[in-house]
Amino acid sequence: MLRRRCDSNCMLAPYFPGDEAEKFFGVHKVFGASNVIRMIQMVEESKKEDAVKAIIYEATSRLRDPVYGSAGTIFHLQKMVEDLKIQVESMRAQVVQLQEQKNQLLGILMNVRHLDSTSSIHERKFDGGDLMLDEDPLMAYDPITFFTENDWTF
Questions:
Q1: Which residue stretches, if any, does this entry annotate as coiled coil (predicted)?
Q2: pLDDT reported for residue 1
Q3: Which helix (H) or strand (E) covers residue 134, if one does?
Q4: Which residue range is the domain that position 34 belongs to?
C-alpha cells in the first residue's frame, strides 16, 4: 500500500474520499500525486470533476494494460463495432435474399391458385357433375339431326 494517503488537507481530498482509497492509490501509482495536482490546476473549475474522472479511468486502464491503457479498450471496442457492422450488412443481405425468395414463392403460389381456379371450372363441365354438357338439354342434340327434328329450314 502507499506510504502517503490523501488526508483532509490534501488538495485531491474533494475528489478522493476516504472510502475510495483504491482509486487514489491507482492514480498515485500511475501519475504521481504531484502530477495529478498540476493537471487539475490547469483545468477550469467547472471541469475539474470530469478531469479527475478521466484521470481515474486512465489510471485504472493503465494498471490493467500498461502499454495501451484506455486506447487498448477503445481499439477493442472499435473492432467490435466494425465486426458488428459487417454482421449487420450480412443480415441485411440475407433479409433481401429471403424477401426475394418469398416473393418468388408467392408468385408461384398465385400462379398455382390461378391455374387451380381456371382448371376447376373446366373440370366441372367434364367430371360427370351437374354441369355435364350431355345433361344440358340444348347441348344434348346432335347438330346434324337437330334442324330436321325441329322442322327448321334455311
A1: 74-108
A2: 47
A3: none
A4: 1-64
Number of domains in the chain: 1
- Asked if residue 74 belongs to a domain, the reply is no
pTM score > 0.85 for this model? Answer: no
Domain presence at residue 81: no
Place of cell 440475407: 94
Residue 53 lies in a domain: yes
Structure confidence at residue 11 (pLDDT) = 83
Distances in whole angstroms, Cα of residue 20 to Cα of each of 24, 33, 74: 7, 15, 25
Query: What confidence score (pLDDT) does residue 125 get?
Result: 47
Task: Count CA atoms within 13 Å of residue 147 on its CB side.
Answer: 5
Q: Say if residues 16 and 6 touch (Cβ distance below 8 Å).
A: yes
Those residues whose C-beta lies under 8 Å from the C-beta of residue 52, and which sit 6 or more positions away, are 12, 15, 40
Q: Taking the mean position of all CA atoms in its chain, how far away is CA 23?
A: 38
pLDDT averages per 10-residue partition of the chain, 154 residues: 64 84 91 92 94 95 93 95 98 97 91 69 50 54 58 56
